[in-house]
Fold each of these.
Amino acid sequence: MTDRQLAPEVEETAEAIATMDIRGAATIAAGAAEALATQAREADANEPAEFRASMRAAARRLRETRPTAVSLPNALRYVLQRMEGRDVDALRRSVETASAEFVRQLDRAQDDLGQVGANRLADGDTVMTHCHSTDALACVEAAVEQGKEIEAIVKETRPRNQGHITAEQLRDVGVPVTLIVDSAARRFLDDVDHVIVGADSIAADGGVINKIGTSGLAVNARERGVPIMTAAQTIKLHPETLTGHTVEIETRSETEVIDAETRSSIGDIAVENPAFDVTPPRYMDAIVTEHGQFPPESIVILMRELFGEGAEEPWAEP
Ligand code: RUB
C-alpha cells in the first residue's frame, strides 16, 4: 500500500499532529479517529482486503506522527478493532460508526472526570496548572459550574507556551488568572490549594507522562504540601507498559528553545528539547478518570480491566 492511496485529509491530519496544529492528547485522539473515518469514506477500494489494507496504512501514517501520547494508538486501536463486514460498504460503515462512537465517548469521559475532579476542589480554591490539558480544564470548569469560585495560577510552559491557551480558556469561563514563568512555580505554590495537570500517557506503575516540567512541579508541590492530581481519561492508560515496555519521550527541534542567531552569538553549545517527562507515582496524589479517582499505584487494576494483558497493533501488515 503506497501513500498515494491515503485520503489527502489523512495526510493533512498527520501533518497537523506532527507540527502541533492539532495537539494535546485528547484532541490528537479525536483528530486521528476522524481521519480514519475520512479514509473509510474516501478509500477507492473494490475488495474488502484492499479496503482493510488502506485503513491499516492510514493508521500507520497517523501513528508515526508523535510518539508519546498513547491516546493516539488507543484511538486507532479502538476504531480498527471494530472494523467488520463482508463487503466494502459494511466495512466502511463500521469504521464510520466506531469513529463517531469514539469521539462521543471522549466528550462524555471528559465531562464525567470533570465532575470527579471538581469534587476535589472547594469554593475559594486557587489551582496551579501546567501546559494545556482539556481534561484538567474540565475539572476547573465543572467546579465553576457547581458554583465554586476558583482562581488559577497558570505556568506559561516553555518552550511552546501552551499556558497561554489555558489562561485564555480559563478567562472564557470567568476564572481570574495569574500567568507566571515556569521558574516562579515554587514561589507561588504557597498561594495554591491544588495543582492540576493532564497526561499524555499513564504507565502501569502509575507514572504520569506529561509535558516537560510536570515532574519538577510535582516534587515541589509535595515539598510544599500542596495536593497534585492528574486529570486523565482512560484512553491515556498505556497498555504496552503492562508488558514491560517503556513510553517513548518525544524530543523536539532545538529551534523551539533558541533561535539560530542567538544560539550562534552564544557560541558552541548543545541544546536539548525533550517534550515530556515522567512523574513517579509517589509524587502524585490522585489520578482522576471518568471511572472515579485512583491512587496512582492502583491504576494498573483499571488498566488490566480495560485493556486485558497487553496491546494489539491492528495497523500492522498481517
Ligand atoms: C500537551 C500536554 C497535555 C496532555 C493532556 O502536550 O502535555 O497536558 O496532552 O492534554 P503537547 P488533554 O502540547 O505537546 O501536545 O487533557 O487535552 O488530553
Amino acid sequence: MITGKLFILSAPSGTGKTTLLRKVMADVPGLAFSVSHTTRSPRSGEVDGVDYYFVSRGQFETMREQGAFLEWAEVHGNFYGTSGPAVFAQVSSGIDVVLDIDVQGAAILRASAKIPATISAASIFIAPPSLQELERRLRGRGTDNEETILLRLRNAGREMQEALAYDYLVVNDTLEQAIDTVRAIVIAERSRGHRLPTGEAIKIVSEP
Ligand code: ADP
Ligand code: 5GP
C-alpha cells in the first residue's frame, strides 16, 4: 500500500481558497479534506462535520490538552485545529489529505517533527491579485460583519509575508487558471511519488 501525501494550503481570508479547493477536489480523485475543529460560529450554508467541526472554546481546550491536534492556532480571534489521528488514518490508507490551515499552522508543521519522515508534504500559498481585490471579495462574500472584514484585511499583509516559505505560490486572479495550476501541482506531486494522476501507484511494465 502506498502512503498518501499532505497538501497544505494557506491564503489570506477572502482570497478564494475554499472556492478553488471545492473545484479541485471535485475534479481530482483520491483527495480528502481534513475537517478542522473551530470555535468560530458556522456561516450560512456551512455544515458541521463537513466544513468544520464547530465546537465551544471549552471543548477545544479539552481536545488541545488531550493532545488531539497535530497543530492548532488562534486565527482572526477564533481557535482552529487539525486532528492528528484523522489525518494519519487517511494518509496511511493511501489517500492524499488537503489541509486548509493558516500560515501559523503551516509554520508549526514545517518546524515540528510531528509529521513522520515517511509522509511527504507539499505546501501551496494562494495569493489574491491585490489587497483591493481581496477587500472586494471579502465584502462580496457577504458572510462577515465590518469588524471581521477589517480584522481579516489587517491580518492579510502579515500573512502575505509568509508566501515564500511555501513550495508553490499560486495567484488566484482568474479562478479557472488558478484551479488548473493547483490541479497541475497535485498531479506533478503525484508523479514525483511514482503515482498516476488518480493517486494509484504506477505499474512499471518491462518488455519481455
Ligand atoms: P477563502 O476561502 O479564501 O476565505 P472564498 O472561497 O470564501 O475565500 O471566496 C471569497 C469570495 O471571493 C467568494 O465570494 C468567492 O465567490 C469569490 N472568489 C473566489 N475566487 C475568485 C476569483 N478568482 N475571482 C473573483 N472572485 C472570486
Ligand atoms: P475561516 O474562518 O475563513 O474558515 O478560516 C480562517 C482561517 O483559518 C483560514 O486561514 C483557514 O485556512 C484557517 N484554518 C482553518 N482550519 C485551520 C486549522 O485546523 N488550523 C489552522 N492553523 N488554521 C486553520
Amino acid sequence: MSHIKELDFLLLNEWLDSGEKLPVIAGPCSAETEEQVMSTAEALMSTGFRGVFRAGVWKPRTRPNAFEGMGIKALPWLNRIQKETGMKVAIEVANAEHVQLALKYNIDIVWIGARTTVSPFSVQEIADALKGADIPVMVKNPVSPDLNLWIGALERINKVGIKKLIAVHRGFSNYQTSHYRNQPRWEIPIQLMALYPGLPVFCDPSHISGKREWIFEVAQKSIGLGMHGLMMETHIQPEQAWSDADQQITPNRLNEIIQSLRLPDDKAGTSQINRELMHLRRIIDSIDEELIQVLAKRMQIVEKIGQNKKENNITIFQLERWNEIMESCRQHAANFGINLDFVEQIMQEVHKESIQIQSDQIIPYPSFTDKTLSSD
Ligand code: PEP
Ligand code: MN
C-alpha cells in the first residue's frame, strides 16, 4: 500500500492525559436539551467516569425528517459541562462552518462521522477549516469498507498539521440485515493498526452493535484486538433518546461495562518497543484465529463435496481439478508476494486432510477406499 509512512501522528499518551488505563469517550448520541446533557454528564461523573464527554450537535441522518441535532444552541451547554465537571467535550463536525463554531466555542475534540469520511471534498473542507488549530481530530471509518478512504481522510487532516489523531472503528453498513447494525469487518481496523503501529484506534461498539445488549461483547473484542480506547453512547434515559435509542446505555451500565472489561496485561508495556511487540502479537493472534476459521469453513465445504460425490458416484480425485487448484494457489501466492514453495506445502497438507475427510465419507464404496488422492 503506497500510503504507508505518510501519517505523522502523536501516540495517545503524548497528548491525552485521561489518567485512565482505558480512555473512554461517553455521552449521548445527540445533545437534546440542556437538562439531558447536564444530567448525563453529572451521572457519569458520579460513577467515577473521567473520560471525554461526547454529544452530537449536528446529526447527519441517513433519511430526511429525522432529528438533525440542536445545532449551535447546544454549544453553550457543552461549555457548561467543561466548566462544571472539568470533562473535555467532543462533537461531530461535517463542514467548515461546524469547525469554525467548534473552535469558537472551545470544543476540545472534534470527530468526522462515517457519512462524511466517505466524501473527500467534505473531509478536505473540514481539514482546511482546521488549519492552524491545535485540536485533536477523530476520524470514523467510512460507511463503506474502504481502508484507503479511511486513511485518505486521516491524511487530509494530518496534512494541515494536526498530529493528535484517533481513528474510530464503528463498523460498515450492510445492504442485508445482519446480526449487528454494522458489520465489524475487524480485519480492516487490524490492517490499519498494522500499517501504522501506535496510531490511536478506538472502537465505537454502540454503532457496531446497534443494540445495548451487545455493546460489552463488541467492546471486549476490540480491546482484545489491541484497540486503544472506546466511544460509547450514554444517555440518562436511553429509551427516551431522540436518536439511536436502542444502542444507548445509562451511565451506570457504562460503568459496569468498563469495570468488567478484561484489559490486556500491560506489565511488559513500559517501553515503546515492548508496547509495539505486544500490539503486533495481538494482531498475529487474531490473524491465526481467522486462519483457523477459514480452514474450518473450507473443511465444511469439503464434506459437502464428499457427500455430493458419494451420492453421484463420482471419483474423489480428478487430476485436472487438483492442478487447477494448485495453479490458482500459485497465482495467489505470486500476487500477494509470498513464497510459492511455502504455499504449495500448506496446500498439500490441506489437501491431505480433505482426502481424509472425503475418504471417511466414501469408505462404504469399496472402489474408492484405495484412493490416496482427492481433489475437491
Ligand atoms: C455518532 O457517533 O453519533 C454518529 C453519527 O456516528 P457514525 O458517524 O459512526 O454513524
Ligand atoms: Mn449515534
Amino acid sequence: MNKQELWDNFGRTFRDFDLESGIYKAPGRVNLIGEHTDYNDGFVMPMAIEKEITMLAQLRPDRKVKFYSLDYDQMVEYNLDSLEYDEENIWANYIMGVIDEIQKLGSSLQGFNLMFTGNIPQGSGLSSSAALEVVTAMTVVDLHKIKIDGIEMALLAQRAENNFVGVQCGIMDQYISRLGQKGHALLIDCRTNDYQLVPFKDENYQIVICNSRVERGLVDSKYNERRSECEQAVEFFAEKEASEITALRDLDLETVEKYKDELAENVYKRAHHVVSENARVIESQKALEADELKKFGDLMYASHKSLSEDYEVSCEELDILVSLAAEAGVEGARMTGAGFGGCTVNLVKKDRTEQFIKIIKEKYKKETDIDAEVYISNPAAGARKI
Ligand code: ADP
Ligand code: MG
C-alpha cells in the first residue's frame, strides 16, 4: 500500500479529529558479525534491512489510545491511565510498553489513534519487535513534540521490551532500527553503548538472508547455559590474571590460550569464541572501511566456524546453508542471531545473487526437505518520518 492508500485506510478506520498526525517507518535488522558478544560487554555490527514497519497516527482530544494492526486486522483500545499487559493481543504490548516508558519520563501524553503494517518476517531473528517499538517511539514522540535524541529513544524502546513485554534483550536491535543509515552498518560497543557508522561502500555486493525455517526451540535453555559458562570464564580469569577483568571483553586470545589446559573444555571453547569474535568485529570494521569486502567475507565464515564448533549454537540446517554458500562461491556466510535455527547472513556479489538463491532453494530442500525463505537487502535507513 502506498502512502495515500494507507491514509485512506486510516480515514475509514478512525474518525478524523483534525489534530496533529504523521506517518513513520522503522526497519528490521540483520547482525552482520559479532554473535553472543553483546552480553560479554563486546562488539556487534548489525545493519538495518529493507523491510520495515510503517505506522500512521493522529492525536485525539481524550485519554484513549486505539491501535489497529492492519496485518492481523485487530483493533484494541486502552486508556493512558491504565495500561496493562494484554494476554490476548500480544502485539499491543510492544506499543503499550513504549507509551509506558515515555510516560515514565514524566511527559504528559494525550490520546491517539494509530494503525500499522509491516513486512519483516516475525520471530525469525530479524527483530520485527524492535522495529515495532522504535516506530512507536518515533510516532508518539513526534506527535507530542517531545525532545529526545536517537540514543535515548533506542534505550527507551529497549526498556519497553525489557519491562513491559518481559524480554531481556540487549541494545543492538533498537539501536540499529533507530540509528541505522542507508549504505552503512553500525558498530556498537555493548559496554559503553557508543556506536559508529561503518560504510558499506561496494555497490557490487549485497546482503542475502536465508531463513532456515527451523524453530529456535533450544534457545532459552542453551542461552542461559552459555551465559553461565561465560561467567565461569570471567571468574577464572579475574582470579588468575587481574581483578579488573569483569567481562570476556577484557581478554585477548593469548591469555585465553595460556590457560587452555587449566580450564574445563567447554569454558575454554566459549571464551575462545567470544574473544576471537570481538577481534573479528573490529577486523570487519577495518575491512569495510578499506573497502575490502573479500576480507570481510572471510571473517564471516570464520565467525560461523567459531559459533558452530566453539560456541556450539549452530544446528545442522544452518551449517548446511553455510556450506551451500561456500560451495556456490559466495564471499561470506554465517549464522546470525542466537542460533539453533533462524537465519544465515550472506555477502553476495549482485550479479551472482540469482544463481546463489537458486542453488540454496534447490539443494537445501533436497538435503532437509524444508523450503528456505530468502530476502535480499542493502544496508537500509533507520527510523524516520516520511
Ligand atoms: P522478532 O523480533 O525476532 O521478529 P519477536 O518474537 O521478538 O520476534 O517479535 C515478534 C512479535 O512482534 C510478533 O509476535 C508480534 O507480536 C509483533 N509484531 C511484529 N511485526 C508485527 C506486525 N507487522 N504486526 C503486528 N505485530 C507485529
Ligand atoms: Mg524480537
